[in-house]
Recover the amino acids of this structure.
């Protein structure tokens, strides 16, 4: 119950993603507090795009994001470490082949 | 518009609890903590970044919460001396510019509060500390803005000093703070240039206008020099801040940079900086300058400046007056959510 009261009292936190121009992906640019998603978008407009930094805004409740744990960083990303053959530079090709 | 050197403790209780917490750790927990500390130190030594969920020493976290929240408060309180002039700006153009600048300061405050929140403190806690008079903010805003030239001088000198302070913070070891500062610094240059240009316009005007500019410069110059914080010999916290990659350049070095950059700007403007000891020292390759009145600085930091009470009262009133708006928005959002939920259940 106390948690519900807390929610009633304070505006929740939202993460803001802005697409800087058509053709570019939305990029995380910060967070803000707002009562709901629509208000979060309006506020993001004022907080993060005062100088035409965006053509589109996404907001998502921060509480809805699931993030990987930094403690798991090594085990999570280790499998890619020894697979250097996934990079084109792994393969040696004669110079006379030219650009490939 | 802030000083990185305002790393004075807030008036909250000093923490001796850190030792007591470590004393409670089992040997295993202690070993885990030591290993985490080694990892943290390695990242710092390699000039890497610490992100919100990474392990960090309590003291690092506390220092950052204090510094970032003080910085945020400074942006928010910093709106007041200038906001004062919005209704009295001399033209529609200057008024629009000033509104944009003050809005930027609000934005800077919001970027910074968000950065501080990633460290586990809540917006409400920070605002409560500010409103209760426990949290510090930059002392420069506890001085009055007496004439229109003050608005120009705040842009030129106060924001100019802030830029000197803030640029090194873009390389701060704490990722969210560094990212917020990059955004702030991009916008801050407009603040300084609009101020300088407003002053240039006045200096091309009547003798009375020129006198207003000189008067404003006389009143703000020394306070701007003090913004960089106490001399290095008197800043014991600086060493730890440097070690942690939070502070990059010492108070005195930044102050010197500011003086050297400002002297030629003052010449072009045609104003005199009010310091008889200010002169070029060819041997050092820098300008020498006179003694700063640190007693006045500390008196203002400790609450006895000319506007401390007024600023805080204005800030508290603004927050209280906005309470019904926050409540109404929340009530509306909840009503809408409930309606949506009911609709879904019915479907």
């Amino acid at each position: 119950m106390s948690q519900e009261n807390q929610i009633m009292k304070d505006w929740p936190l939202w993460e803001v993603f802005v697409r800087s121009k058509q053709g570019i992906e939305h990029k995380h640019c910060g967070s803000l507090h707002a009562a709901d998603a629509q208000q979060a978008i309006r506020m993001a407009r004022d907080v993060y795009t005062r100088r035409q930094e965006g053509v589109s805004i996404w907001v998502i409740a921060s509480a809805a994001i699931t993030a990987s744990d930094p403690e798991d960083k090594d085990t999570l990303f280790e499998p890619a470490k020894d697979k250097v053959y996934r990079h084109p530079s792994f393969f040696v090709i004669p110079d006379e082949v030219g650009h490939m | 518009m802030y000083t990185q050197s305002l790393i004075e403790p807030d008036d909250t209780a000093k923490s001796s609890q850190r030792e007591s917490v470590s004393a409670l750790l089992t040997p295993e927990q202690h070993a885990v903590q030591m290993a985490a500390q080694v990892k943290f130190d390695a990242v710092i030594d390699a000039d890497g970044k610490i992100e919100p969920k990474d392990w960090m020493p309590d003291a690092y976290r506390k220092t950052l919460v204090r510094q970032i929240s003080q910085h945020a408060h400074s942006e928010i309180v910093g709106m007041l001396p200038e906001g004062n002039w919005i209704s009295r700006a001399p033209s529609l153009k200057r008024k629009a510019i000033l509104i944009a600048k003050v809005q930027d300061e609000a934005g800077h405050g919001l970027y910074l509060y968000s950065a501080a929140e990633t460290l586990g403190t809540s917006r409400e806690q920070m605002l409560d500390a500010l409103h209760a008079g426990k949290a510090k903010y930059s002392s420069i805003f506890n001085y009055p803005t007496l004439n229109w030239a003050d608005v120009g001088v705040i842009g030129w000198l106060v924001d100019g000093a802030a830029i000197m302070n803030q640029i090194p913070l873009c390389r701060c070891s704490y990722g969210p703070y560094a990212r917020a500062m990059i955004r702030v610094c991009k916008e801050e240059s407009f603040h300084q240039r609009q101020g300088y240009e407003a002053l240039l316009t006045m200096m091309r005007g009547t003798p009375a206008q020129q006198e207003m500019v000189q008067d404003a410069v006389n009143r703000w110059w020394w306070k701007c020099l003090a913004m960089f914080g106490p001399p290095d010999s008197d800043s014991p916290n600086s060493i730890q801040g440097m070690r942690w990659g939070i502070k990059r350049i010492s108070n005195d070095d930044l102050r010197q940079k500011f003086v050297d950059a400002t002297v030629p700007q003052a010449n072009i403007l045609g104003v005199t900086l009010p310091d008889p000891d200010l002169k070029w020292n060819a041997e050092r390759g820098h300008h020498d300058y006179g003694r700063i009145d640190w007693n006045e600085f500390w008196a203002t930091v400790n609450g006895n400046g000319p506007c401390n009470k007024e600023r805080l009262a204005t800030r508290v009133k603004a927050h209280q007056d906005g309470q019904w708006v926050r409540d109404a928005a929340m009530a509306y959002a909840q009503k809408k959510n409930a309606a949506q939920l009911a609709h879904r259940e019915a479907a």
